[in-house]
Amino acid sequence: MDDDATDNHPRTTDSHADSYAGSQAGSQAGDRAGGRAGDHAGDHAVVLGAGLAGLLAARVLARRFSRVTMIERDELPQGEPVFRPGIPQSRHAHVLWSRGVELIELMLPGITDKLVAAGAGLYDSPRDFLWLSPADWFGPVSGARVLLASRELLDQAVRQEVLRNPRIRVRSGEAAAGLAAGPGGRTVTGVELRGGERLAARLVVDATGRTSKAPAWLAELGHPAPEVTRCDSHLGYSSRYFEIPDDPGRRWQGMYVQGRPELPRGGVLMPLDADRWLVTLVGNGEHAPSVREEEFLPFARSLRSPALYDAIRDATPLSAPTAFRNTANEWRHYERLERWPAGFVVLGDAVCRFNPVYGHGMTVAALAAEALAKEIRTLNPEEISAASRRIQRRTTAVAAVPWQIATSEDMRYPVTEGPPPDRATRILQSYMSRVMVAANTDPAIASRFFGVLSLTSPPGTLLDPVTMVRVLSKRGLPTAPHTTDYPSHHGPPVARAQNRPPAVG
Ligand SMILES: Cc1cc2nc3c(=O)[nH]c(=O)nc-3n(C[C@H](O)[C@H](O)[C@H](O)COP(=O)(O)OP(=O)(O)OC[C@H]3O[C@@H](n4cnc5c(N)ncnc54)[C@H](O)[C@@H]3O)c2cc1C
Q1: Using CA atoms, how far apart are residues 382 and 331, in angstroms rounded to an integer?
Q2: Are residues 407 and 388 in the same domain?
Q3: Count of CB atoms within 10 A of residue 6's CB?
Q4: Pairing relation of β-strands 344-346 and 203-206?
Q5: What pLDDT digit, counting tens, does each position of 181-200 carry?
Q6: Residue-number span of the structural domain to which 316 is assigned
Q7: Pocket lining: 325 vs ligand 1, CB cutoff 6 Å
Q8: 100 inside domain
Q9: 348 C-alpha vs ligand 1 centroid, how far in Å?
Q10: Domain total for the chain?
Q11: Does 86 sit in the ligand 1 pocket, CB within 6 Å?
């Protein structure tokens, strides 16, 4: 990724931008003063939404635009990282896979160390965790790096780093309400804010997440609605914080008990910011966990293994359970539209969101920012505006692999609604079941499997002849959905060896 030093767009000495240099507090305090209608639009980009997709896009755009204004509906917190209503998913387990860690570090050098200093953890997944896959417990195999932190901490750290750039500022507590456009809706020329103010811009980026109103805004300009593909496994989340109980003998850092189609219930336990556990329970359809306090522990006990229940049964809860239900994979195919206005791009969850259980949304936001950086590398603001249809297609393309992973896994579940799996998907599902069995114990396959899952390597790395022979020589899934014994450390689950159910395949 190119660095600011290589930026060949002339850097303006914009006193307006300069006045926002420095801290996040400085950026927000100055927000009210500037950006009025009539601003010169030529070198100005507006990013709607200061979530992860919007922040990373702003970081990238600041290389080509002398001013980037972010519009964020929430009042952004100052000081301690705290919950805000615009990111309701922050109360549920979030994993940032290695590819996301790597890209965010490239865009914001030094951020990983700062996050770790603030309490985030970098782990090897699955080696550092107790992880029951649909096949069996992972042995002590190395997979991919993951960063675990509260979303509040992660977002605040990214926001602070992004807002250090003097070209970027945020107007928080203000919502976008529509687009402004030239004749025939052919070129987006700015954005309308709730309250009526109009901000002129050469480029508008919609990164307002899953509640994006882009289809309606485009319709107002005379553009057709995008086709939508949906695949909904009706997965429900219920999450709760716990004090970390003292246990000097504990040798795992976190835990993941996955469900299977015949028992679609699972749970994740992760350490957050060095001082608490976040436990997220999940289930499909009628198995979705409730938010009633008295049902949290019984649900944990009903998983395929009692490991998670055993870990939290005596732990002190720090919060009531909270739910998240709208977890469908949904892709708005803007990239297929024949007509697309110049000066407009949609990024992040606003374009494509995934069943969150695979942990891909944040990494995809980073991949889209990387694709955006490549597309605009040699363009000036006017050329970027003219290239927005191509930019839309290229930044969306990064969703293809995680979409394939999420939907083909979700299609294994009988409650899933969506396009039925075709023959190729069914073959892939069957092969991936074998990969999962092999990855449990074979370090080479685990490394390849997690390379793909972390979006670091292409899926083809699981299909080379040597890997295929290795995978196909392994036994199939155990038939019994339940496992009572579990590894109490990172050694192989010796106790299970005697009572392993007969394998199929
Ligand atoms: C339950 C759950 C668990 C998840 N777990 C993971 C995980 O483990 N790993 C992972 O990588 N991803 C995970 N994700 C996905 C991840 O949260 C998102 O992909 C990620 O936050 C990027 O989203 P975004 O920036 O596109 O949108 P968001 O994070 O939704 O941000 C949108 C922003 O736009 C603002 N906004 C909305 N409307 C307006 C408006 N009109 N004007 C101005 N501002 C507006 C909002 O306030 C918000 O700040 C999970 C998602 C869910 C729902």
Answers
A1: 29
A2: no
A3: 9
A4: parallel
A5: 999 999 999 999 999 999 99
A6: 234-326
A7: no
A8: no
A9: 8
A10: 3
A11: yes
